[in-house]
Structure formats: C-alpha cells, structure tokens
Amino acid sequence: MPEGRHVAIIGAGAVGVISAIEALREGHRVTLIDAGEPGGEQAASYGNAGWLSSHSVIPPAEPGIWKKVPGYLMDPLGPLAIRWSYLPKALPWLIKYLLSGWTEARVEKTAFALRDLLKDAPLLHRKLAEEAGVPELVERNGVMHVFPSRGNFDNDLGWRLRKKVGVQWMELNADEMRQREPELHPRYTFGVVVEEAGRCRDPGAYVAALANHAVASGAKLVRAKATGLKLDGNKLVAVVTETGEIPCDAAVVAAGAHSKRLTASVGDPLPLETERGYHVMIENPESGPRSSMMASDAKMVVNWTNKGLRAAGTVEMAGLEAAPNWKRAEILRNNLLSMFPKLPKDIPASRVKTWFGHRPSMPDGLPCIGHARASRDIVYAFGHGHVGLVGSARTGRLVAQLLSGKQPEIPLAPFSPNRFL
C-alpha cells in the first residue's frame, strides 16, 4: 500500500474517530465525513451504557434461543422485542442470528474472536482519553454483575465460556455484596466483579473529545451525508455525498447502522441490522450503586455518568425508520427503581431523561472488519452490536493497519465481511 494516502472515513462515531486518530498516526491524510455532530444525541455512541467491558465476548444468540422467538413476538416490552410489522424484513437476519448460536461450539468460537478484539480495551481507551485531554472520562475500576441466586450464575453458558477465553473475576456472596452495595435490593444474593473492565463517564463527550483531537492532529471534518463510493475499475476515486464528491485514495465505512447502503453501492450486500436500544437517566439521584453493574434479571447495565445515573439495555427489532416505543424506556426506569428501593418513586419528569438509538449489528455477533471485495482501497469497520464503544479502540488500530498494508495485530478472519458473501 502507498504511504500517505488520503483516507475518507465515513462516520464520526467511536469507531470512525479512533480510526481517524490511528490513520493519522500512520502518516495518512484524513477526512472525516458525517452529517451529525460527533458524540451528539443522534449517535449510538452518545447513548451507550458506558461500559468498557472487555469480557463482553458472548454473542446475543445462544443455543436454544429459537424457543424464545414466539415470546419475543408476543411481548413488545420484553428484553428482546420484534415488531410484527418488521418481521418479514428481519426474517433473513433472524435466521442467520439463530443459526450463529445453534451450538455451544459456534458460540465458543465467537467468544475467542471477540476476546482478541476486546482484550485490554480499558487500557487502550484510557491512553486515547489522555491524548484527547479527557483522562477523567475513562475509569479502569472494574464492573459488577448481580444475580438473584448463585444458580443463575452457575447455569449461564456465558460465564463458562468467559473462563475458557481467559476472563477472571471475583465472586461475592450476599454479605459481601451488601458491604459493597448497601443500597442494592436484597433480592440479589450473588455477584461477580470483573476487575479488568472499566467505564466511560460520558460516552458522548468522550467521542466529541476524540473527534476534536483528530481535527487538532490534522484531520478535516466534513458535515455531509455519504451516499455511496465511486470506483474506477478496482480503484476508489471518491466518496459520494449529498453535497458532492470527495476525492480520496482510500475510504473507511464506519457509519454504524447506516453502513448497509454504502457497502451495497460497491456490490457487498451485507446483513447489517439495527438493534434499537434505549436508555433512561436520572439526574441527581438520591440513591444508586457505588460501582457500575449489570442486573441479570433485568438484562440492563446501570452506570454512573457525569450527567446522572444511566440504565441501558434491551433490544428492539423494528428497523431504522419506525418511531420509538418509549414504554421500553419506562421499563428501564421501573427496573432501576426496583433495584434501588431508596430511589423515590415520584421522581419529577424533569430529572428523568430518555434516549433511543441504533446499534449496528451483524447476525453472528461479530463486526465486519476488512476490505471490500471490489477494492482493497475500501475498509469496512462496522456492525459491533453491543460492543461498539469498548471494541472501537482496537478496531481503529486494525483499520489503520489495513490502510497501511501492515499485518493486523489480531487475526481478522473471524471478522471478514466475506463470511456473508
């Protein structure tokens, strides 16, 4: 690959801005293209739960999950909901999703690949935050998982596989949990602390700071909506936007849930879906956890941010265009109040903020990181699903290595876009 290429990076979310920083480090010239504000409320990065969970190696689909699909269709407010109106369009993706987790061996293979991508992520993010002048936004102080009983933990395939891939944790009985988290509801009697993990105190502000750092380091930020990629044979010549073409030598597609039409423009019809997510945040809460935690029964993460106590999680399949179902955010709020009984039940609405956005997800739980078939000038970096923020640090490094023709620091075969083509 030639040195000093002009790289157009489509998408100024976590993956895009870190790819820009790492590409600049490699000596490339960078143009970031995004119609929205980096780290703004429209971005998936903004609404992230804020966990830097390097142990999040288990894909959403596990063996036997097909038995739950009827329930997902019947319960619009469940942890995973599928809108009936969207089912015909989602069905091909859902079939691939179910097949990807059909056996424990398949899930284990995915777990090993994700471990490569996520290992040391809190440290990588801490270094980036320091470079960007916001070290206080990334903390490496561990996270906690809480369970109603020891049996809920022992019967979880995910924890058995985490042990196989090298994740370590500390187990807590009910008394030890109570000492650490005195305001947590007593129905939780068992917990584990993953000390290697970390958290981000404000994902939106963090991504905005990284974007500012990229610009200060020489990147150009163009506010435009990219609509396609222009090739001359197998050579990329420009990124097409609604306001004109941007000539370039290479391009990175890191547009999150909006990447699908860009890959299709160069002949790669990849099965990218949006797992629509919600969060609720209570400003100045009267109670809450001392550490960041995930509740196994509520399937949600609770995390302190600089703006308040945030609860995030659950999945809704309804596409990019459907209106949000704010009752899903209300359920997150109710679960939060249930976890911490000292939170008042009549919190004023002015102190409760809700958000809705789009997780870009591939059906097998692995992102696409690799070259387009039509041209090695095009690098794909999207589809991270539930590990977008934590996985962005190493993804950015991998993108820069691919742009420079260097050997990637981890095996990329599991993440190859060609696995679906």
TrEMBL record:
Residues 6-402 form the FAD dependent oxidoreductase domain. GO terms for molecular function: oxidoreductase activity. SUPFAM superfamilies: FAD-linked reductases, C-terminal domain, FAD/NAD(P)-binding domain. It holds the Pfam family DAO. InterPro entries: FAD-dep_OxRdtase, FAD/NAD-bd_sf. Keywords: Oxidoreductase. It comes from the Bacteria. GO terms for cellular component: cytoplasm. The keyword Hydrolase does not apply. This is Amino acid dehydrogenase.
